[in-house]
């Protein structure tokens, strides 16, 4: 994304170039939103596939789908809004390429707020960087970490591999055993995660067990944690054992 944007700005801003000027419509595939077919406003990029849309368009789209509108990749199983980021560099390019678009958008925003009797938000002023003076802090005044875990990701998993049935050999070890997910996720989601990370064959079956219970695909992790109770927890982690077996012959 950033390499592409840099190439645009180089070709367009070089007024000394002898290359002929290109019509704006040749850049439409890069500066227009595929959802509303208008020029990008608040350009927002999906981190999984780098496709970009208007912020309002992609947020509305995620109300009823968790897939990218362009390539249909699953952005996130339960919270696709976690995997979008503002693309300010691309938005700056759009404003420079399309005359009066930025001014028109500001007028529309002011009109929107005034019609509803709301205060127009003031533009964010970026302060120049100030030299940071490091001071030794008391132990009690250590600041909290900037990163906070979203409340929706309320179940911590420990995935323990118990082995594979004879005849199953081609698989990678599961390097990421500790996972934090939504309690609404199901055993099926866990199985798909294991399949992808271990690069399992479609003929291989994944059995997931919690305590003495063989779990069904439709069971949610929150329900499992509530039904099994403290017996399934280890230092606050929900422990799931899984093994690889060959499908039974009918």
From TrEMBL:
GO terms for molecular function: zinc ion binding. InterPro entries: PcG_RING_finger, PCGF6_RAWUL, PCGF6_RING-HC, Znf_RING, Znf_RING/FYVE/PHD, Znf_RING_CS. One of its GO terms (biological process) is negative regulation of DNA-templated transcription. Residues 33-72 form the RING-type domain. One of its GO terms (cellular component) is PcG protein complex. Keywords: Coiled coil, Isopeptide bond, Metal-binding, Nucleus, Phosphoprotein, Repressor, Transcription, Transcription regulation, Ubl conjugation, Zinc, Zinc-finger. Signal peptide: none annotated. It is found in: Nucleus. Gene3D superfamilies: Phosphatidylinositol 3-kinase Catalytic Subunit, Chain A, domain 1, Zinc/RING finger domain, C3HC4 (zinc finger). The keyword Iron does not apply. Component of a PRC1-like complex. Interacts with BMI1/PCGF4, RING1 and RNF2. Interacts with KDM5D. Interacts with CBX4, CBX6, CBX7 and CBX8. Transcriptional repressor. May modulate the levels of histone H3K4Me3 by activating KDM5D histone demethylase. Component of a Polycomb group (PcG) multiprotein PRC1-like complex, a complex class required to maintain the transcriptionally repressive state of many genes, including Hox genes, throughout development. PcG PRC1 complex acts via chromatin remodeling and modification of histones; it mediates monoubiquitination of histone H2A 'Lys-119', rendering chromatin heritably changed in its expressibility. Within the PRC1-like complex, regulates RNF2 ubiquitin ligase activity. This is Polycomb group RING finger protein 6. It comes from Perca flavescens. The lineage of its organism: Eukaryota, Metazoa, Chordata, Craniata, Vertebrata.
